[in-house]
Write a structure and sequence with these properties.
about 70 residues; F1FO ATP Synthase; CF(0); membrane; transport; ATP synthase subunit c
Length: about 70
């Protein structure tokens, strides 16, 4: 029973990662739409936010298999 509960936990963390990526890029698009000249400043920050959000989802996958 614990193995399936681990996978449910990973599924929830994957949903959280998807929502996080959506919020990061929604803020990026909103910022660039308001000030197009700030794109060069905002783009690396958006990619850093993407990487950190996806890293948390991958960490959830690792913990799901380790705790099993």
């Amino acid at each position: 029973m614990t193995g399936s509960l681990n996978m449910i936990g990973y599924g929830l963390s994957a949903i959280g990662g998807g929502v996080g990526v959506g919020l990061v890029f929604a803020a990026y698009i909103n910022g660039v739409a308001r000030q197009p000249e700030a794109q060069r400043v905002l783009q690396p920050i958006a990619f850093l936010g993407l990487a950190l959000t996806e890293a948390l989802a991958i960490l959830g996958l690792v913990f799901a298999f380790v705790i099993q």
